[in-house]
Amino acid sequence: MEFNQYFDHTILKADASEEEVNAVCREAIAYHFASVCVNSARTKQVSCLLADTDIAVCTVIGFPLGAMSTMAKKLETLTAIEDGATEIDMVIHVGAVKDADWDAVKKDIEEVKEVCTNNTMGRKVVLKVILETCLLTEEEKRKACETAVEAGADFVKTSTGFSSGGATVEDVALMREVVDAKTTALEKETGVTHNRVQVKASGGIRDLATAKAMLAAGADRLGTSATVAIVTEAAGQ
Asked: How confident is residue 117, by pLDDT bands cut at 50, 70 and 90?
């Protein structure tokens, strides 16, 4: 895969203007990134701008806290899909993780996954589950990854970039290990081949060295607003 295709070109700041979002879309087209990732209010705008391309429209859901009701996440997801989203990045219910209420965590993901799979547009949409790893213990990260796999996530993702920390190489490697092991265990248990769950690193990826380190640790996708600078640095080398 070409280096540019590892990136979700991201603009999630609260004060992002219409023209700034337009500019991000133009950059994504020019550099052929994997997706443009935006808040849900910008989904239709991005979908229109990327309509004649193969660049995915990625919308964040329950962002950045994950602390809203599952019904609210489902409605936001459905609206985003109707507005053109082809990928959904939902924030996990971090409080439920801290409570070790894994049934609630799983149900939250499953309900959003159901909308991604069966919706009014008749389109299957990729679901990425944001763990907010900086707030979790190692055991919580492991269990959150396993729960996300069980609930049908297509990706697990490190961070929102809006909390106390972002992606680390150690967390990416841990997540890669856990989702692979859980997938293998599910296949042995059910006898059914399970789609490979992927890992997205996001938060604090601002230079080429960091991007390469995340990929080497097992990331399949990188979320960053510094995408152009990173690929320009790569081209220079």
From this structure: very high
pLDDT on residue 232:
97
What is the model's pLDDT at position 24?
98
Q: Give pLDDT tens digits for 93-110.
A: 999 999 999 999 999 999
Count up the domains in the chain and report the number. Answer: 1
Write the CA distances from 39 to 13, 97, 127, 137, 162, integer angstroms.
9, 24, 15, 28, 13
Question: How much is the pTM?
Answer: 0.97
Which residue reads 């020019």 in tokens? 30
Q: Is 200 a catalytic residue?
A: yes
Catalytic residue among 74, 141, 182, 200: 200
**128 bridge partner residues:** 89, 155
Per-residue confidence (pLDDT) for residue 119, from 0 to 100: 96
Our answer to whether residue 157 is catalytic in this structure is yes
Mean pLDDT value of segment 226-231: 98
**Close Cβ partners of 71 (under 8 Å, ≥ 6 residues apart):** none
Q: Which of 157, 171, 182, 220 is catalytic?
A: 157
Paired tokens of 67: 């602390």
CATH value at residue 71: 3.20.20.70
Domain that holds residue 40: 3-236
212 in active site: no
